[in-house]
Amino acid sequence: MKVRLVAKGCSQRPGEDFHETYSPVVKSSSIRILAAISAELGLDIHHMDVVTAYLNGRLEEEVYMNLPEQLSAVLDKILSNKKIGSSESVILDTKITETAKRWRKMMNECDDCVCLLKKSLYGLRQSGLQWHKELVRMLLSIGFKALPQDQCVFVARKNEHIMLIAIYVNDLILATNDNVWLNNVKNKLSNKFEMKDMGKISDCLGIQFSRDNEDRVYMEQSVYIERLLERFGMCECKPALTPIDVNVKLMKPESVNESVMKQYPYQSLVGALMFLAVSTRPDVTYSVNYLSQFNTNYNVEHWKAAKRVLRYLKGIPNYGLVYERTGLSLFSVVDADWAANSVDRKSYSGFAFIFAGAPISWEARKQRVVALSSTEAEYVAISEATREALYLSNIFNNIGIECECVTLFNDNQGAIKLIQNRSYRSRTKHIDVRHHFVRDMCEEGLIELRYLCTERMPADVLTKGLSGPKHHECLRNLGMMGM
Fold this sequence. Notes:
By secondary structure, the chain is of the alpha+beta class. It is built from 14 helices and 18 strands. A hairpin with a 2-residue loop joins strand 5 and strand 6. 36% of the residues are buried. One of its GO terms (biological process) is DNA biosynthetic process.
């Protein structure tokens, strides 16, 4: 029988019992970058888990806690060498017995005892943050440095060897090409914290990882998809060829009908699908983002459209990202669907950044303003992709992988010429100045724009619903395939 002592964090007072509470976790894109780099450089990926991680944090505030209600009875059992919940005798460790005696003596001497917490405890508002700080201190002490772009990714180098560590609360993903160094780091971590060494990574954060004989790295979520189908009663559904019908045009009902909305767990389904969309399935990202626009007002038509995504996943549950050694630099495909929204006539942007043969970052979203032409819509999409290009290139450079210029492929020659030519044009003078920074980045050599014909543009899958053959062609060109 295991017991976990939990503090009532709901009774803590801000500014007195705690201050900061935010605790960072590794970004999804950073995990994919780690996997892609591992495939490109031939790194082994391992997984470690910290046991009861939150108990390792150092408290920066004085925090007092009432004694657990059953503590007195538990101490009596210990001092009488009895099993808790039983009259059976048991031989206990001397330290446990001595601690019980000390606690019993203090409780007898005090009518209203409270305890001062010396370390962090589950339930405290600041426990997550304090654990993160403790782990960071440890990693810094053994030679790792955090990336400025993601404080949960750490890198260290020894001559031609490299090690990357990504942390998500108590899960650590380690990638390196030096097994001796890896074992040394594992031992240092295990000496500091109680750790579980899971060996080569296979299942972490709801994602399945695998390697083949050619050293390719696979990331997929078939287990999560199977549970999702079971949860929503779709295990025996008929598979669909695409996640969204090419002709679907959903509208918000004229008024919110809560009695109708209660009949369908629409928000739960869209939220569950969103996890797939941001983790390993860019093929459903556009569909899920489109459906999320109706989270506060939906009916049976929206529910049917959401279930279609499940039907699509039923057909290809083991599709995922496949990273392999290509020798190619980071590049991106960018697209826009002009005035695609039939209600507000706003356009959709989509981009994917490819490294080691598959996407490491992608986005599909509705643009904030109405574009007056297809050229303007593509221009805005390229601007959004440029920001991501700068972010990703900085990550690669800080890791030690040279990334001086990122190539962006787009299928609108008008938008490319507009960026490359600063001459005044009356038809584009209204475009928000924030989008024009892409011109500066192009002139500085940080990005390069190239034309890719529409027929070969894989980012189409991130901006609109497609026919079955076109949809799956885009997936192949993105580097997605069945495991």
